[in-house]
Amino acid sequence: xxxxxxxxxxxxxxxxxxxxxxxxxxxxxxxxxxxxxxxxxxxxxxxxxxxxxxxxxxxxxxxxxxxxxxxxxxxxxxxxxxxxxxxxxxxxxxxxxxxxxxxxxxxxxxxxxxxxxxxxxxxxxxxxxxxxxxxxxxxxxxxxxxxxxxxxxxxxxxxxxxxxxxxxxxxxxxxxxxxxxxxxxxxxxxxxxxxxxxxxxxxxxxxxxxxxxxxxxxxxxxxxxxxxxxxxxxxxxxxxxxxxxxxxxxxxxxxxxxxxxxxxxxxxxxxxxxxxxxxxxxxxxxxxxxxxxxxxxxxxxxxxxxxxxxxxxxxxxxxxxxxxxxxxxxxxxxxxxxxxxxxxxxxxxxxxxxxxxxxxxxxxxxxxxxxxxxxxxxxxxxxxxxxx
Length: 388
Prior knowledge:
By secondary structure, this protein is α/β, with parallel strands linked by helices. Helix content is about 40%, strand content about 20%.
């Protein structure tokens, strides 16, 4: 039986890093804003964007989840040091968001790629319709070669400001986009058996394969004035990530070129998922969602599904049930056999209007075309007789 944690000497990057095709990087406030002055750490951010450019050139998808708006905004507004009132935090976020987005945009432009800002809250990753909208936007940006920069919508989202859910948000984003790896850049280089600053016998764990009560007990509160999240929220993020099939790594962001450092075997803690993102997602669809309806397909569509294709409206003969966009439905053959389950891309009323039609006709029928597929292959889990 594999131990849920082990400590070894880190000498080279793990294969999970080299093999990762899609990477989400979480950047904390304390790394972006100077603690003494509150100003943006331009040199550090430049080195990070250099690393992102290298990954981008290697053909990897990169999504940044960036904190820092409140820390930078309070500096611009000359707010006092110490805890801020909620309204002050929201005002600081509104100001800081502009400068932060501009900094990313300019550094990216100098390196020949495009960034895009996306403002999210935890609610956007929990409510199915908002989740799908956010995911489709990020997926489209990545397909166009852009680097999405996701920020907490701190100017309106009180929960994120009060409880520091930045780490968990990044894990949810990683799960949303089926990332292979989530990187949490921290002011500490991993998870220790005890707080390293107060216990000389504390050891860093290099690998964690399960979030056990023992692992949870090791997570102390390492928050600072600029960064409200501590190790506890990072371990909670790890739980979300590995349940979604995404490997997660905590490493120090206090060095220049922190992502390159991972490639060079920098000290860190890896939380390893037992399955890849697609497998985990299909397992979730197949076993944890209650179907809201049924979609019946013809013989041609059944054959296409078995070959790994998406379900197009043309191959659907009828639908039953009451469902909204993003709800789970069963996929059935003409004789009623269940072929699998999936997340449907159109609500029942719209689906009824386009079944049996070509995808090229969707826009004319509905007035808008969100996607060509009724159920995308990445959003379905077929039973054993079908192809996954």
